[in-house]
Every structure is written in structure tokens, then in C-alpha cells.
Amino acid sequence: MPRIAVLDACVLYPAPLRDLLMRLALTGLFQARWTDAIHDEWTRNVAANRSDISAASLARCRTLMDEHVPDSLVVGYEPIIPGLNLPDPDDRHVLAAAIRAGAGVIVTFNLVDFPASALAAHSVEAVHPDDFISGLWGESPAAVLDAVRRQRTGLKNPPRSAEELLATLERCGLVATVAGLRVHAAEI
């Protein structure tokens, strides 16, 4: 059975990373999970920083994510929140969702907000998206390569070359992932 991973709002905020994570989730390499609160956070931040993206477009993206990734939406985690202790109390909902979903991983850029000492009791670990995707690459390079290829061919306005997509993913913090993919750029 594939691992279950809760995707924190910070990894859903950048569209290229969100797109890649969704495509990877559809490979079956892992089961992606999130909550309405996580959706609210990333969409609120995109809306605040990108006036060119409409609320309707963000709502459509959110709906498509929920519809296309099976069983992605975690519910019923709220009663767990008060019993959790994290450096930032506002992040407790993410850990509560991971516990409720039976996730072993929280994929986040904010590793300092999810210390191993606080997560270990719940058999959860926080993993940087570059390490997470590199790990998927190690397990199934063909599936990851196919997901990246589908991401590139899905970019129509404007289209992107393999190198342009890889440069974008690198700017999203996927340095090790891109280093592994660059060798296969001709297949992307």
C-alpha cells in the first residue's frame, strides 16, 4: 500500500509544485491528503499575492484537486488539535490531519514548525518536498519521469521546454529532484 502524505499549504502554494505533486499522487506512488483548512490557507495566500488569479480560478483548482485525487480530503481531525503541541499552534491542524489520515509524512517547507520530537509520538515525520520527490524518484524513476513529462506537455499557455520546466521546479526548491531529472531532459 502506498504511503499516505499530508501536503502542507506551503507546498500547494506554488502552482508548478502543486501540479507536480498532484500528478505524482495520480501515479499511485503515494496517497495525497489535505483538509479544507489547508486549502483555505494556500488559496488565501495565492489570492493575497496574485491579483491576476481570480477567486473563481482558485475555487476551480481546489475542486479539481478534491475530485481527481481519491479520498484526498481529511475530515474529523478537529478534536485532535487541542492535544497537540507544536512551535506554531496554527500548524496543529496539519499534524491532526496527518494523525486522522494515518499519514506517516507531512510534506512541507516548514520543517522547523514540525520538529521530529513532537511528531515521533504520532509516527509522523516532516519531509521537505525535494526529499519527498527525490525519494519517489528512487523508488520509481519511470513513474516520476512520466509525471514530469505529463506536466510539461500539459503546459499550453505558454508551452515550456523540458529545461524551462526543470528551471521552474528548481526555483520551487526541488534542487536534488531536478538534478536527477536533468539527465533525462530529452525524455521530458
Question: How is this structure best described in words?
Answer:
With about 190 residues, the chain is an alpha/beta fold. The chain folds into 2 domains: about 5-135, 5'-nuclease (Rossmann fold, 3-Layer(aba) Sandwich), CATH 3.40.50; about 140-185, no CATH class. Helices cover about 55% and strands about 10% of the residues. The chain is built from 10 helices and 4 strands; from the N terminus they run E-H-H-E-H-H-H-E-H-E-H-H-H-H. The chain has helices spanning about 10, 15-25, 35-50, 55-70, 90-100, 115-120, 130-140, 140-155, 160-170, 175-180; strands at about 5, 30-35, 105, 125. A 4-stranded parallel β-sheet has the order 2-1-3-4, sandwiched between helices. Helix 3 (about 35-50) runs antiparallel to helix 4. It starts with a strand and ends in a 6-residue tail after the last helix.
Quick tags:
10 helices, 4 strands, Rossmann fold, 188 residues, alpha/beta, 2 domains
Question: What's the layout of helices and strands?
Answer:
Blueprint lengths: L2 E5 L1 H4 L2 H11 L4 E4 L2 H14 L5 H14 L23 H10 L3 E3 L8 H4 L5 E3 L1 H11 L1 H14 L7 H10 L3 H8 L6
Helix pairs in contact: 2-8, 3-4, 7-8, 7-10, 9-10
Summary of the model, kept short:
This protein has two domains: 131 residues, Rossmann fold; 47 residues, no CATH class. 38% of the residues are buried. 53% of the residues lie in helices and 8% in strands.
